[in-house]
Design a protein that fits this description.
By secondary structure, the chain is α/β, with parallel strands linked by helices. Helix content is about 55%, strand content about 5%.
Length: about 450
Amino acid sequence: MDELQLQFRQQTGLISIENFDEIRDALAEKLSRYQNVVYTNEMLDEAKKDKKCLRDLHKEIDERRKLVKKTYLEPYNRFEKQVKELLSMIDAPLGEIQSFLNGIEEQEKLEKRKAIKNYFQKRSAPLNGMAQQVWDSPVFFENKWLNKTTSAKTWQAEVDAKISSAAKSIQNIQATGGQHTGALIAKYLETLSIDGLSEYRARLAAAGDGEIFTLGQFPSTDQRTGYKILKLTGNVEQMIQAMELLAMLGIETDEIEDGMPQPMPELLQPDFDSFVAFDLETSGTYGAASGDVPAEITEIGAVKVENGQITERFSQLVNPGRKILPRISKITGITDAMVAGEPDISTVIRQFADFIGNRILVGHNIKASDLHYIDQAASKAGIRIENPFFDTYCFARSMKDAQGWENVKLEYLSKQFGVEQPEAHRACCDAQANARIYFKLKELA
């Protein structure tokens, strides 16, 4: 490319009006007659005549200016057009190369993120079972660690510092939090900062002992493992909140017995091929112990299945009328801004009721929570939903040991059965995956 050199001709000239002084003086003399003229109604014709004369003079001079401008700019415009054509020829392969390099850079970032997570996992022992929750905190990972200018030594030191700080803070909360430990740790994980926790603890204490749930203990500092069997007693609303708090804290539960009242009749065998599979997303809640209001629905998604085939879909965001927990937003991708302009639950539940008709409802772990939210929303809207339901979670749990499954979560079963979840934790996607998992479970049964 060195032998290619842009060659062009350029004639530098001076643009000026050679008789400028003469024209200026003549124009000044010609215009002097207008300086002291005061037009009146009797001089209307004269004013119109003077206006035409001055406008013609202005036009003549301005048109000359435009002609000179065009004459002098035309060579440059032609030159610029030729240069742009040459640049566009270069831009085509340059763009392809840049796209390739961008892809490489993204891949390097993914590899670096993976390396950072692997390092974190190796160094996370001081967190005593809370490693995943700390990693998932919206403020733990710093995007600057992915920059090429950030060395491994730098990000490793910062990761170590964050682990050490989090471990000390969590141990402090566990030692002093008492019955509020769960709520305090959930609050701490939002910011990984103890600022404001004292005030938050005071608000928890003011909520009153009658609303406090004791949800178990975190692993002790000697890293011994084990389990606790808890018996939780309360109304439906309290049970839902308790289960959500356990899930937020990353505690897996195994339901031994369910004696809670159900608003709909339960089916125990997968012996049907037509139904509506549905899923909900909610705002989450810190629980009554923290003075927080109950969780509310933020999205309803469903697919209608006729003789084994998905024939229709339902997907609608809902304005919950309360803030969505940051952790929930991170999992679902649903933010306060996204639902701000959406209809309320009373409107959406009526649409959902029209969609499902009298069909069987299928869902994953709906018996423990989703049906409660549906029943509450229906009551609020002044309607009744009493469809029979089948819970794939409960049915899969009865097959867990025989199949050698690690757990029966929707994501895990989707991987086991090869069911794609392009938007996991979004209601319609999860409902569609659940419909396919239903038929897989039916085959096994």
